[in-house]
Structure formats: C-alpha cells, structure tokens
Design goal:
- By secondary structure, this protein is mostly helical.
- It folds into two domains: 74 residues, 3-Layer(aba) Sandwich (Rossmann fold); 90 residues, no CATH class.
- The protein is 44% helix and 9% strand.
- The protein is built from seven helices and three strands.
- A three-stranded mixed sheet has the order 1-3-2, with helices on one face.
C-alpha cells in the first residue's frame, strides 16, 4: 500500500498474526528530530504524519513508534517536497549507518527493551564512525529544495569515503546474518522511492 494507506496492511497483518497493537513497531521519519537521532515511544499522536494517522485509524494508538530524525527544512512550505524526496547523496552515509545500527539492535526492540535498543543503536553508530576526526560532529541537514550546484560542478573534490566496519563481536557468521537483516531493512525503508 501507499504510505498514506499503510494502516490497511498493518491492520491486516495484525489480525492475521493475532498480535496486540503494542507488539507492532512502526519506524517512521520525524521532522522534529535532528538528522540521525532516534527515539522510541508507545502510543501518542500522529504529528501530522499521514502514515501514522492511517495506522492509528486501523489499529488504535497503542503501538511502538521508532522515530527516525530527518530534520526540518526550515520552512512549512518546503515540508511536502522535503519528506517526499530522497536523501541527498551526501546524507546517504549517515542514513546507511543508521539503518545498519537499527537492524543490528532490532532484537532488543522485539524483546521490549527500548532503552537497550536505543543505547545499542547509539553505540553501533559510534563504532561505525571510526575515527572522530574523519567525520563531522553532526550530519548535514537535508536541502529543502534541490541544490543548483554540486561539489563536482564547482570543481571541488568529492568528500573522502570512509571504510565500513565489518567486524562483528559474535564472529563472521553472525555478521552475515546481521548484514542480511540490515540490507532487508534498508530495502524496506527505501521502498518509498520505488513506489513513486
């Protein structure tokens, strides 16, 4: 279904699997959080998010919300364009690291240990960041409107790419399982692009 009608699919899955709304975790973008910040809460309002509004209409408000910060474009007029378009290329690194960290810590969320989930996400992001000197302190905010010039068009060199940490404390086999989970989560979260 489309994001604005996601409640239909969530409601059907909930009834088919015979689970309570409190056992559902919805990952969604959040304008009111800085880019790459994550918060978890049970229940609450929809804050103008049409996908959450649809889910709440079909299963009620008592489900877990994993709020993924994308930052605000700065102007109310730019919000629609901002949330309906892809991340800029320069942001894809922090988005990828965030999705990997979410996938690696998801088992804590499934157990209901929200605090451990959040602390592991933060720890994994820090571990993946490697040397702090190679990474800016805060991710760049997304552009509200398409940029008219790029680093390449200005004659600037592209930013250096960092190596990704592929080590996993449980060994290579667990790393492959976690990577597969992260890859599936990335595909699921990026499906918005293919639906457009």
């Amino acid at each position: 279904t489309y994001m604005n009608e996601s409640g239909r699919a969530v409601g059907e899955a909930l009834r088919f699997l015979k689970i309570d709304p409190a056992d559902v975790a919805v990952f969604h973008d959040e304008l009111d959080l800085a880019p790459s910040k994550v918060k978890v809460k049970l229940g609450g309002g929809n804050a103008g998010h049409n996908g959450l509004r649809s889910i709440s209409a079909h299963i009620g408000n008592e489900y877990v919300r994993v709020r993924l910060g994308i930052g605000h474009p700065g102007s109310k007029d730019a919000v629609t364009y901002y949330v309906l378009n892809d991340f800029a290329k320069v942001e894809r690194e922090w988005v990828s690291e965030l999705l990997d960290a979410l996938a690696r810590a998801a088992h804590h969320l499934a157990k209901g240990d929200d605090a451990r989930f959040l602390s592991d996400v933060a720890r994994f992001i820090q571990a993946d960041a490697g040397d702090a000197a190679d990474k800016p302190a805060q991710p760049a905010s997304r552009q509200a409107l398409p940029a008219k010039t790029t680093a390449a068009s200005k004659g600037e060199a592209p930013a250096p790419q960092r190596k990704t940490n592929t080590r996993h404390p449980a060994g290579e086999r667990a790393n492959k399982r976690q990577s597969a989970l992260a890859e599936n989560l990335k595909k699921w979260l990026s499906a918005r692009k293919s639906d457009d």
